[in-house]
Design a protein that fits this description.
alpha/beta, ten-stranded mixed beta sheet, four-stranded parallel beta sheet, 9 helices, 14 strands, globular, binds threonylcarbamoyladenylate, binds magnesium ion
């Protein structure tokens, strides 16, 4: 690394610590990195990508020890971590009880995708920022993943704070994603590490889930359903309801939380999953059966927020 690289890294680390967005090279593709413990920084990632839904993000860590601060490793998961990290393998594991990772980063799921990238610049950024980094591929939603700094600039240049240029990503395809469940491995996405290599290490088959059953978490209506029912586009709570407010629609009362009193959609997205959980807990504790939610505008991140709310309000199977 040259001196100027080092200087850029320090600047990038400071941006991350302040909640900003930095595109970083990894060996698979470039990622759009933000402090994974900062809800608002994570909300900015979704905003910059223009994602119509909150898909869970991969959290990048330096190594297995760092990942263990946020997720629970079974023996089998640990085996894969030892064999393939740093590298192009993402492991989806249960969030641990003390995980400081933003709930928005994992889209409200109880699992988290974690990966230790094998790239000196990504590694250096994680260490300098001293943070786990939530990073989806650094492209606008629905476009091809970037493998060079120039691709990122074309796609997101005006939306992010900095791009670290590490040349071309050597692997060039995204990481292989494996979920470990009940000590079985499930392939969620083929990628940079061939599944055969994983099977060799495990001495067992990796379960392939067929197309219809593939877990596409953002897409499942049941993926985060609160225990309480949800009523949408409410302007005021009815008796027996907790209230999820937005902007001027406060829904006063003892059981009301406001996603953003100033009507800021980035702040609202940052608060969405944690507030849903809080209200759900309040309902259980106080014997309420329903959460009423204020209308949310559909512009910008509003589309993703509405998408989540509509799914959470959908009839249960
Ligand atoms: O190589 C890569 O994986 C790149 C680099 C930047 O690390 N990242 C990447 O991120 O491709 P993204 O956001 O474009 O794709 C991540 C995928 C999504 O399809 C998401 O649904 C899945 O990972 N994912 C993340 N966390 C998950 C979880 N808890 N459960 C199931 N799937 C998860
Ligand atoms: Mg992507």
């Amino acid at each position: 690394m040259t001196i100027s690289d080092d200087k850029n890294l320090q600047i990038a680390a400071a941006i991350v610590q302040k909640g900003g967005l930095v595109a970083m090279p990894t060996e698979t593709v470039y990622g759009l990195a933000a402090d994974a413990t900062n809800d608002k920084a994570v909300a900015r990632v979704f905003e910059a990508k223009g994602r119509p839904q909150f898909n869970p993000l991969i959290v990048h860590v330096a190594d297995l020890a760092m990942a263990q601060r946020y997720v629970d490793f079974s023996a089998l998961a640990e085996k894969l971590g030892h064999a393939f990290w740093p590298g192009a393998l993402t492991l989806v594991l249960p969030r641990n009880k003390t995980s400081e990772i933003s709930l928005l980063a994992s889209a409200g799921l109880n699992t988290l995708g974690v990966r230790a990238p094998n790239h000196p610049i990504a590694q250096a950024l994680i260490k300098s920022a001293d943070r786990p980094l939530a990073a989806p591929s650094a492209n606008r939603s629905g476009t091809i993943s970037p493998t060079q700094a120039g691709h990122v600039k074309d796609s997101l240049g005006d939306k992010i704070d900095m791009i670290l240029d590490g040349g071309a990503s050597p692997v060039g395809v995204e990481s292989t994603i494996v979920k470990i469940d009940d000590d079985q491995a499930f392939l969620l996405r083929p990628g940079g590490i061939p599944v055969e290599e994983i099977e060799q290490v495990l001495g067992a088959k990796v379960n392939r889930i067929d197309g219809d059953k593939v877990e596409a978490p953002g897409m499942l209506t049941s993926h985060y359903a609160p225990a309480a029912r949800l009523r949408l586009n409410a302007t005021t709570p009815e008796p027996g309801e907790a209230f999820l407010g937005f902007g001027a629609v406060q829904g006063d009362g003892p059981y009301a939380l406001n996603l953003s009193p100033t009507g800021d959609l980035i702040q609202a997205a940052a608060n969405l999953f944690s507030f849903m959980r809080k209200l759900d807990a309040i309902c259980t504790e106080c014997g309420l059966s329903r959460i009423a939610a204020a209308p949310i505008p559909t512009a910008g991140l509003g589309e993703a927020i509405n998408d989540r709310l509509v799914r959470a309000a959908a009839p249960r199977p």
